[in-house]
Amino acid sequence: MNEQEILPVAVDKAHIVQESWPALSEILQTKFDCIAVAHGLNDISRAREWSTSRKPVSPEKKYVKRHKNVLVSVWKDDLTTHRVDAVVNAANEGLQHFGGLALALSEAGGPQIQMKCNEIIQSKGLVKTGDCVVTQAGSLPCNYIIHAVGPHVPKNHTNKDVEKVAPLLTKAVNNILKCTEEKDLRSVAIPALSSGLFNFPLRKCAEVIVCAVERYPFARRQPVEVRLVNNDDPSVDAMLRQCTDIFGPSDPTAAVTSTKSDRRTAEVPVSSVQIGSVTLHLKKGHIEEEKVRCSFWLCLV
């Protein structure tokens, strides 16, 4: 039986592999009798461009409305600096934060975030679409990161493609709010999940997220603030329109729930291998059984 090794490559090193891939694959085959298969090469440049296109913004609250026991607000802000109990990360199934918001949060929060995510994948396997996992937030100005895996649609998707996976986006939002209740949080910041690298159309994304918040059966009596936070105008405007349509005009007199002042120390797992800025994870098994989305890795056979 052939042995297979999966080696995730950090995004800041992936361009080296990308540029030297023909020579690297030839060396691995001639010197070590290994067939190397690269996954995600085409996504690397796009992911880096998406993450570097994020511009710093000043926090700006565009909308606030009390709905039952929930305070819904729309913000234009950078999630890496947004002060809230928990921020939501738009993660992939392998929790490999290689680009976009995921990379920005991981870099701002420190290496322990990716290390903890690697530990979760090693112990529990890939995170299914629609599910969430929670980690400490490292150096971010919040207590937790809720890593939510939203649905992915093809770049040239059809309406049928979108409608087919829309329930998974609803599921992801429900699980985010469930985590908020389980952790007894007062506030959570949710971005336009799946609308970036995962190609989910922005208008539909906003509709699904806001509807999910409106319909979620919050069980506790303590008020919770759900902040819809993005740093780009199209996403902010889409959330603002949906909130106005579903909840009505903004209520400027509504009180904003404060975040918890205590910060918990982030956990740093010990079962990991860090070589410089590269986190190395070796896995033996069948490559056809692996489902790694939006990440870059090598398979050596």
From TrEMBL:
Any one Gene Ontology BP term: positive regulation of type II interferon-mediated signaling pathway
Keywords: Glycosyltransferase, NAD, Nucleus, Transferase
Molecular functions per Gene Ontology: NAD+ poly-ADP-ribosyltransferase activity; NAD+-protein mono-ADP-ribosyltransferase activity; transcription corepressor activity; ubiquitin-like protein ligase binding
Main location, first listed in the record: nucleus
Subcellular location(s) of the protein: Nucleus
Pfam families named among the record's database cross-references: Macro
GO terms for cellular component: cytoplasm; nucleus
Stored CDD domains: Macro_Af1521_BAL-like
InterPro entries: Macro_dom (IPR002589), Macro_dom-like (IPR043472), Mono-ARTD/PARP (IPR052056)
Ranges in coiled-coil conformation: none
Domain Macro: from-to ranges: 59-247
Name recorded for this polypeptide: Macro domain-containing protein
Native species: Denticeps clupeoides (denticle herring)
